[in-house]
């Protein structure tokens, strides 16, 4: 384990996700359990709190969308496993919604601090709303951080997962405000001959602005 990560939780995009083993609402979990799958690993400040409850329900309602993308969900807070279970049961009892993913009980904050989920300027104990999108090779591909009083936009998290998967599959990039099934950006030419060829294609196909910005449909 990198010393900087261990002491400061200085996790960055492109790093391998720090390893951990923990207890959860679905039994023991490890980061290695998710190798071969994408993972959305998120923290919430506390059980039985209003914003967190809306988020957990929203994640549960969109669970099948993540599953279709070979993406798992994993939550965490510093509450006890008993508290997690009581909270999830209360949600189920009041709404009929069963939470289909585990929530880690990180009582001593070891995992939260390792991942930088605790912002000491906000709270020394509660986690803020972090989201780590981890690919099927265990690499952190995106990091989102929300304050305690602002709920996450779950469709945006789904969009990021699909954008990462689409760009990787097609060796391309996604433009601003991209949503699935919209055109993606073709990699820029690397030689002058390729530049000229790209401009000719743009003039013919009307699929771009200039040699450095042109588009194609997914998989084409």
User: Can you say what the CATH homologous superfamily of the largest domain is?
Assistant: Glutaredoxin
* Beta-strand percent range: 15-25%
Helix fraction by DSSP (H/I, runs of at least 4): 25-40%
The largest pleated sheet is described as: 5 strands, mixed
Distance between the termini: 41 Å
Provide the CATH architecture of the largest domain: 3-Layer(aba) Sandwich
Mean model confidence by pLDDT: 91
What string gives the helices and strands in order?
HEEEHHEHEHEEHEHEE
For this entry, what is the oligomeric state of its chains?
single chain
Count of spatially separate domains: 2
What overall form do the CA principal axes indicate?
A: elongated
Question: How do the strands of the widest beta sheet line up side by side?
Answer: 5-4-3-6-7
Detailed description of the structure:
There is one protein chain. The protein is elongated, with a radius of gyration of 20 Å. With 220 residues, it is of the alpha+beta class. It has 2 domains: 150 residues, Glutaredoxin; 50 residues, no CATH class. Helix content is 34%, strand content 19%. The strands form 3 sheets. It has a 5-stranded mixed beta sheet. A 3-stranded antiparallel beta sheet has the order 8-10-9, covered by helices on one side. The N terminus is likely disordered. The protein contains 7 helices and 10 strands.
